[in-house]
Automatic annotation (TrEMBL):
Protein name: Cupin domain-containing protein
Lineage: Archaea, Methanobacteriati, Methanobacteriota, Stenosarchaea group, Halobacteria
Superkingdom of origin: Archaea
Signal peptide feature range: none
Gene3D superfamilies cross-referenced by the UniProt entry: Jelly Rolls (2.60.120.10)
Species of provenance: Halapricum salinum
Cupin type-2 domain sequence ranges: 37-98
InterPro entries: Cupin_2, RmlC-like_jellyroll, RmlC_Cupin_sf
Length: 124
């Protein structure tokens, strides 16, 4: 058995990312689950690009602020204390609009961890 207590504030931000991303997965040694805290200032996005996963299920729990998630069909506005779930093969781009007045903080969870993001171009 193994247990970890991780304070995301004590973790180093992921380098070369669009927002402040703290990988709980890396600090805790999780093998199959992606887990990270993201804090996005106005105008920043959560992932590096608009994307989808072939196998990974993802959930974005909004801790503070309001998250916007663009999909091919609509844009979801996810308030604090709510969760957006993206199933496999569901393109999405989570972001904090430039017009926002406050940052948004999200706990992102996904499994399987090893399923890479596949870029999605909404104009194709």
């Amino acid at each position: 058995m193994g247990y970890s207590v991780v304070d995301p504030d004590e973790l180093e931000p992921t380098e070369d990312y669009h927002c402040d991303r703290r990988s709980i997965t890396g600090a805790s040694g999780l093998a199959n689950l992606h887990l990270a805290r993201y804090t996005m200032a106005p105008g920043e996005q959560l992932a590096r690009e608009y994307h989808y996963h072939e196998l990974r299920e993802e959930a974005f729990y909004v801790l503070e602020g309001t998250l916007h998630v663009e999909t091919p069909e609509t844009e979801y506005v996810v308030e604090s204390e709510s969760v957006l779930v993206a199933e496999p093969d569901s393109p999405h781009r989570a972001y904090n609009p430039a017009r926002a007045e406050e940052p948004v903080t999200v706990l992102g969870v996904g499994a399987p961890r090893s399923d890479p993001a596949i870029p999605f171009d909404p104009d194709d």
